[in-house]
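in:
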């Protein structure tokens, strides 16, 4: 799902992260491409417009220089707006009502209502330990009731015995009564569809709703139909009132326009995704995970979140400035090490940055693991401010004193000094490097 959109967006945004600075023009240019990508993914025009406006306003107003690169910040903003557009929090099926809780499934013919009813029943039984009874209210299609019974047997869910000649409302009432008498927790009502919306269908849904008083009314819509699915949801909601949406066939939907527009246009949450024909091909809809799937940049997003929490931007900038001038003293090193510790150690940072796995060996050989970081900070603490600013004055007697003060040995002090010199050189090079994982790491620290 979302393959096409994902590829385009990550291409556009990836371009931004590689830049040290971003002008408003750069952002506008990128947003024009984002706009085109969303429209190509069949996202509703109004939704695209409001999406791009939100990103633009926030990007302009944001404290972008907050210890990450502007490009990374823009990615975070796009990610946040995506999540909001998708509906912010996951909204599972609500069973918080006296049993039997009725769930009414509505939608057009072939959207996947019957299949999804059985999938939901199976899931509620297996994961939430509910006793579920299913009933087909489709008296138009002769085989519909039998189809549900077959699926029921397949997944081990009871279905209401079929009585020929009953109306949908009579079946709904019988299902409710049977569920109450036999102690079922949930009763799933699978209604009839049509090939398109018509007045008779809507009237039938309203009638069933009145009789069954369902706690959830879930619209099942085929995501492959794109904006038609969104209009359908709006129509059903206006006429019948729905509590949520299940999007089916997302396994074949490379565009994702329906998923992205649904919430903004209808105001109703997508609750579940149908991801295949098999009975367990049903997923909860988590806006943050979907956003991650679309952008494929969760690593950078969490890096920005962590960095924003922990890193003091001004300090980082000052250090960066000093580094560029080749003045990376031991005080700066200590500050940097402290920040590395705060963000979860080097392991934490490396696991967040794409491509960093390759650097692991290099960093390990530089002896930069987290225990070493602690020891190094202790050594630096034992120095006088003058020594930290000017390590060249550290001769044998001073080194002995420092080693004793930090509970280490003179060799450790020597190793630290050597490492500091190496790092200062490396950092200087990084400052001028244009790309590569290490420069990403450096820019994450505002270097
Ligand atoms: P209904 O008329 O709305 O009850 O639709 P059905 O439940 O009979 O589904 C119609 C067809 O769509 C069946 O062949 C299902 O197996 C298939 N189907 C339903 N949901 C999905 C899904 O999420 N992915 C895929 N690939 N097929 C699905």
């Amino acid at each position: 799902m979302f393959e096409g959109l994902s590829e385009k967006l990550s291409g556009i945004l990836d371009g931004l992260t590689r830049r040290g600075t971003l002008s408003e023009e750069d952002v506008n240019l990128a947003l024009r491409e984002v706009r085109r990508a969303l429209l190509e993914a069949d996202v509703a025009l109004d939704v695209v417009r409001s999406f791009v406006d939100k990103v633009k306003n926030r990007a302009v107003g944001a404290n972008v220089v907050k210890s990450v690169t502007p490009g990374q910040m823009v990615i975070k903003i796009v990610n946040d707006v995506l999540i909001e557009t998708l509906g912010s929090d996951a909204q599972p099926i609500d069973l918080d009502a006296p049993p039997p809780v009725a769930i009414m499934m509505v939608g057009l013919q072939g959207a996947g209502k019957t299949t999804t009813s059985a999938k939901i029943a199976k899931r509620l039984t297996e994961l939430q330990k509910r006793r579920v009874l299913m009933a087909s209210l489709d008296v138009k299609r002769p085989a519909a009731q039998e189809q549900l019974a077959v699926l029921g047997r397949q997944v081990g869910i009871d279905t209401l015995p079929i009585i020929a000649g009953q109306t949908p409302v009579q079946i709904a009432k019988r299902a409710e009564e049977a569920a109450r008498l036999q102690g079922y927790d949930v009763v799933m009502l699978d209604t009839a569809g049509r090939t398109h919306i018509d007045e008779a269908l809507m009237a039938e849904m309203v009638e069933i709703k009145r009789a069954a008083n369902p706690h959830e009314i879930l619209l099942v819509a085929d995501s492959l139909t794109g904006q038609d699915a969104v209009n359908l949801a709006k129509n059903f909601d206006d006429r019948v009132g729905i509590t949520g949406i299940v999007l089916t066939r997302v396994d074949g939907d490379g565009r994702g326009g329906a998923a992205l527009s649904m919430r903004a246009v209808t105001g109703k949450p997508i609750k579940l995704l149908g991801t295949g024909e098999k009975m367990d091909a049903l997923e909860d809809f988590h806006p943050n995970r979907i956003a991650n799937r679309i952008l494929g940049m969760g690593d950078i997003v969490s890096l920005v979140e962590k960095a924003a929490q922990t890193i003091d931007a001004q300090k980082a900038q000052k250090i960066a400035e000093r580094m560029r001038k080749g003045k990376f003293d031991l005080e700066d090193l200590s500050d940097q090490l402290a920040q590395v510790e705060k963000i979860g150690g080097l392991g934490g940072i490396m696991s967040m940055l794409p491509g960093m796995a390759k650097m692991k060996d290099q960093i390990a050989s530089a002896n930069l693991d987290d225990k070493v970081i602690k020891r190094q900070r202790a050594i630096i603490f034992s120095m006088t401010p003058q020594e930290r600013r000017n390590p060249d004055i550290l001769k044998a007697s001073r080194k002995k004193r420092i080693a004793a003060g930090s509970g280490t040995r003179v060799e450790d002090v020597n190793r630290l000094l050597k490492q500091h010199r190496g790092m200062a050189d490396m950092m200087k090079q990084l400052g001028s490097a244009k790309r590569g994982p290490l420069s990403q790491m450096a820019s994450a620290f505002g270097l």
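note: Residues 107, 109-115, 193, 220, 248-249, 251-252, 274-277, 281 surround guanosine-5'-diphosphate (CB under 6 Å).
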